[in-house]
Specification:
single chain; mainly alpha; 89% helix
Length: 75
């Protein structure tokens, strides 16, 4: 379940919004708030990419294994 959440752009958008709100409430400098929001957005994009690539690689391996099985069963 957490893998799916961490790969979600909506999750990272919500996390960024939450962090921004908290920092605004604490009267943190606006430049620092922007930097935190950008870092969270960057982390979210990277995590989503890593999980997506993992899913693609797993599917590719599955497809290759299925094709090898078909070739072996034909011999």
């Amino acid at each position: 379940m957490w893998k799916k959440k961490l790969a979600s752009r909506k999750f990272w958008s919500a996390a960024s919004g939450f962090a921004t709100s908290i920092l605004l409430a604490l009267n943190i400098d606006k430049l620092a708030i922007e930097q935190v929001a950008l870092v969270l957005g960057g982390i979210g994009a990277l995590v989503a990419f890593i999980f997506a690539e993992g899913i693609v690689d797993k599917q590719r391996e599955k497809t290759i294994a299925e094709q090898e099985e078909k070739v072996d069963s034909c011999d």
